[in-house]
Here is the input.
Amino acid sequence: MNADSTLLVGGLLAILYGLIACFFGWRVFRFTLTVAGVLIGGALGYSAGAGSLVFAIIGAVIGGLLLYALFRIGIFVAGALLGAVLGIALGLLIGLEQGGLMLLAVIIGVVAGGLIALVLQKLVVVASTAFSGAASLVGGLALIFPTLGLIVTTEDGFTQTTFGFIVWLVLGALGFLFQFRDSNSMKRIKMDR
Here is the structure.
């Protein structure tokens, strides 16, 4: 598979996942947590294995199984994921380099998001899936249509444009409103589904 095909497939998968998470994340929360576990585990495995695809796959399987099995801590993870996405988005918006300050922004976002999630469960699940899904949508669109100007590639990595930030914010808000309206009939998350 050549680089263009890989970008197209990756972009389409990111868009599909983003649509599901952004607008139906409340209903498919266990699925979105499992996918998040696969993505986080894969990234950690890839980093630990110095770019090895085998380590990435092993990490992805372990991460997915862990978050599926440990569903009860999923609320904290959802908040942490939302905090990480917000930390990255704000860091990119203000032009932080993808080094120490960006890592600090992500860590602060993860801790704050996870702790807030323990208090405001439903709100955090809906917000986390809506805005994480919106981030996936923007990323997928940027891969397939780089001329849209959602993300700019530089020598140091990539930077989200103001336009990309606004698109992410609008999509996340629409997803949040759709999910919140859809979930009003539910009293609480059924954790044992």
Notes: The helical segments are 3-24, 29-48, 53-69, 74-93, 100-119, 121-144, 162-183. The two ends are 38 Å apart (CA to CA). Confidence is low (pLDDT under 50) at residues 188-193.
